[in-house]
Amino acid sequence: MSSISTQDGGFAILGTSFSNISGDKKENNLGGSDLWLICLSENGEELWQKTLGTKSNDEASAIVQSTDLGFFVAGNINDNRKLFGSKDVFVSKLDKDGKLKQTTILGGTALDEVTDMIPTPDGGAVLLAYSTSGKTDNLNNTDNSTTQNTHSNTQNENTTPEITSTVKIFIGKSEENFGSGDYWIIKLDKNVNVEWQKTYGGSGDDRPKTIANTQNGFIVVGESRSQSSGNKKENIKEGTDLWVINLDKSGNEIWQKSYNFGNRDVAMSLDVIKKTNKDNFSENRGFLLGGYTQAEEKIKSDDEKFWMLYIDTNGKEEWRKYVEGKSKKNEERLVSAKLQSDGSYLLAGTSADQLGEENWKILKLGDKQLDDLVENKDIRIYPNPVEDYAYVEIGFELQNGEEAEIRLHDMSGKQVQVIKTKQAVTKINTSSLPQGVYIVTANTSNKSVNTKIVKK
């Protein structure tokens, strides 16, 4: 299951469904399981829903919203004998109202599985996959085993859904694998066409976890069991090590680094740390990684731990921090690790002597080094750049029901909008504004803060 906040303040929820029309579900499944996408307003009311899939068993993996307010939806096709391998990847592009535009199916000779997906500033997306596959050819676009559900969501439960073929592109993996498992990175344009694909790995098993945009391209984080081989340049030290690759916008390597905490190291999260320069534009200042380490054979008191690692933009380690587990606790599993706006780091996971006996373990860490990573801003705008709506977040507390006044001025100084609010977050309508740069100012009786917003 995956969920995101949409740019208009609502939510999009993606999951796997085995259900036909019943209850709240308005479209029949196409196979054993399909992807079920629901788009909600900021008040939690359903705007639309869509069932996506093939005649095989499909599982939901990731969803992101593109710059045109549409959605990229990614999933895996299981038990498929008519396409590329034992498990393939598909990515569908939908417009902002849920209309399916195109589907691209990707795969190699064996198993390929989505681990993450991010939107890119050019309106496309980057897909990150774990691949055990070798190179394979593209398939014929007329394969009828991959029909998609494109009927209207206004049908009643007694109506048989219309199932028609949509535009589908079949793209095989373009490079051979290096080992038993590799990082497979695919850049898609705004129409889900493949711009490039790259494979990174050594002779062992390398598993990607997450990817993020940087100023110059992308950063990929995962785990490696490979020694120096293939296009991996450093040996592992013990068990599995973290393997981080920095790529340019074409997917070519800028640098790669390995990091070790001892035993089996597992990456779970990645935060790109940004600071605003004097021209009010963000610059990357480094990357904060979160994860956990598990003992595999030997057990020591510090073998089981949650950790965080801060590296600069060149991969140089600045510092690491961790929380040790109790002696002989075999199951310390981090689920999420996030840098908070107050300068703390929130770690959430489970702890147990053995599987099936887990208890939740939640830690909040904070010190001066974490404080230094957090940009303290009294006013924030998102999304920025903006199309129709933006949110103004005031970072200081309004006292005793005090009212703030939010004003928008164009670059000539002309006031184009004014809003009064008592809320920390206020929605503003920018749909009627011409393209350009505007100044947003929040005023109270004793404070005034401002920032810039770009209207696309």
TrEMBL record:
Question: Which Gene3D superfamilies does this chain map to?
Answer: YVTN repeat-like/Quinoprotein amine dehydrogenase (2.130.10.10)
| Protein name (database record) | T9SS C-terminal target domain-containing protein
What single Pfam family name could you report for this chain, choosing any that match?
A: Por_Secre_tail
Q: Where is this region: Disordered?
A: 137-161
What are the Low complexity biased-composition ranges? Answer: 137-160
Q: In terms of domain of life, where is this protein from?
A: Bacteria
| Span of domain Secretion system C-terminal sorting | 381-454
Which keywords does the record carry?
Signal
- Origin organism is Epilithonimonas hispanica
